[in-house]
Amino acid sequence: MNHQGVSEIFFEESYTVPVDQTAKSLFARLPHGTGYAERLLECLATGYLVAVIESICIREMQLHVDAAEVVVGRTISIDHRAPIPPGSPLRLRGWLERLGERSATFRVEAHDANELVCVATVTLVAAQRAAMELRIAAKVDALRLEHPAEDLPQ
Predict the structure, then answer these.
(1) How many other C-beta atoms are found inside a 10 Å radius of the C-beta of residue 51?
(2) Assign residue 87 a region: left if phi > 0, alpha if psi is -120 to 50, beta otherwise?
(3) 96 vs 53: CA distance, rounded Å
């Protein structure tokens, strides 16, 4: 990981909320959410907000790691402060807050046209790709032993 490069990360990003990223839409696709999804609001689901924020931070950090490393999420803390209806344009601003030997913590703020809608911190780690792939393979192998008849990733 290039510490100098990571230490200089600052981004401003625009994102328009798609109609299929609402709480109602997300929970309707989950087995345990179908019973109450219709009662939810047509506003951006917090889970999608997390994914948007994390994906931007990963993209920025990925520019400063070598090919043998992969950026993975460690911790996300999010304060989703206001509803965000579909079609809303968001402005996301993020910067490095803390830098560790293999990790970086970013602070991200999101605003819609009216107010601050989210404050988050995201901690990412630059992990060795080969080590992570070995850990994943070991878990997949264990799953195959436990559930031999099911289709599992190769």
Answers:
(1) 13
(2) left
(3) 13
- In the chain, beta strands by DSSP E: 10-16, 69-80, 89-99, 103-111, 116-128
pLDDT tens digit sequence for 36-53: 998 988 999 999 999 999
**C-alpha closest to that of 45 among 28, 14, 23:** 23
Q: Which residues of 90-128 are buried (b: 16+ CB within 10 A; e: fewer)?
A: bebebebeeeeeebbbbbbbbebeeeebbebbbbbbbbe
Find out whether 3 and 61 touch, Cβ atoms under 8 Å: no
Contact 117, 48 (CB under 8 A): no
* Contact between residue 1 and residue 126 where contact means Cβ atoms under 8 Å apart: yes
Q: How many CB atoms lie within 10 A of CB 61?
A: 24
* Residues 11, 107: Cα–Cα separation, whole Å: 11
Residue 58 to residue 56: CA distance in whole angstroms = 5
pTM for the complete prediction?
0.90
